[in-house]
Model the fold of this input.
Amino acid sequence: MLSFSAILICLLWFFQTVYLDKFYKNIKKSDVSHALKNIESVMDDKDIQSAIDTIADRYEISIIVANSDGTKLYSSETAFKGSIHHFNEERLKEIYAQAQQNDGETEISIENHREVMPDENFIKDSEMETPKYDKLPYMPKNRQDEGIIKVKLVTTESGETYSVIVESVITPVSATVHTLRIQLVYISIIMIVLSLVIAFIISKLISKPIIQINNSAKELAEGNFDVEFNGRGYKEISELSETLNQTTKELSKSDVLQKELLANVSHDLRTPLTMITGYAEVMRDLPGENTPENVQVIIDEAKRLTGLVNDLLDISKIQAGVTELSTQEFDITESIKAVIERHSKLLEPYGYQIYFKYSENVIVDADEFKIYQVIYNLIANAVNYSKEDKNIIVSQKRHGENIRIEVTDHGMGIPKDKLDSVWDRYYKIDKNHRRAIIGSGLGLSIVKNILDLHGADYGVDSEEGKGSTFWFELPV
Done:
């Protein structure tokens, strides 16, 4: 603010003291040119004298309209006594001829003519009845004014040509410059003080909410997710506060979900590890317990651990952006059959039935392994959230130019206000954690990230107490 004021003051000093005289002279010359144009436009008016008087008053100039013989037809002057009013017929005739030789326009520069009057005693004593302009002695009255005299030949509608002579005085501006310098000293001091005051006020207005936001951010960095950002003021600061408040809510939500995930994963890890350890100790300590059944339990629990770890690694890779798609054309119908066959063997002891409804085999262009994961995790999710009705329905349907895959269960369903949340990482509808029958319980987060990588449409339709249908679409 101080720099801006300093630049402004320097400009004022520069233009109002150094170049004031040039600006003033240019303005006067411009006024004379405009006056000539205005006079030219009123030359055919009936009341030309009145029009000329008006122009003379407006521009503070002296005006003479004369013919080629040097006869004054019209004249007008303002408060100052213009030099052109002392011109006799001979002089006016000379000026007419000079303009005629110069394409109808000419300019006469004179100095020291304003308030320069002929010697009255000389006129009285002279034998000349009509004094000649160029032979009169002039008596300067200690004025150094400059005058601008412009002449233009104007032809009226009647075909007559007249010389229009306009004079404007240029008063020396040295006294004005001195006054302006004194004024600018005071103006400079006032502007510097005002700039400091305004800068202080503006800085306070801007910095106060930023300081508040900064203090709240420090609390957030220390793990206080209940902090609220109350920065108010300029629009951008208010928007920043709202964004940070939303960020705080998301961080708080993420923190809660991560804690739930850690608790659930810890439970899922502890159970198979306990079973593996327990069965291994039994087989070691008790004769005859080294049976194929006990060994199979250890193998099954080890596989469950492997699946859980792999799912956690998959989520980490996808969210870190290091996973790349390996797309190719493949038969998605055969992939679905392979997933169902794998699930059917695992679920046979639990009484689950998986039905596949389709009308034709369909070829898609996608990452076969990852789409296999998607189908596997959707079926696993349907199994884990089914209740008494253990029938899982997988459907393959044409949907315009796409193929739509649906997995339907008849479980507990999802409340409408939580439909969008089921895809969020770490989120579980059932807060009372129970061990997944198959899979790790992290499948939907993996599904979402894989489908996002493919740019596929996906969603869920659900009704509480009746079950849910998870679906996704891929171009055929």
About this structure: The chain has a mean pLDDT of 80. The longest helix spans residues 235-285. The radius of gyration is 50 Å.
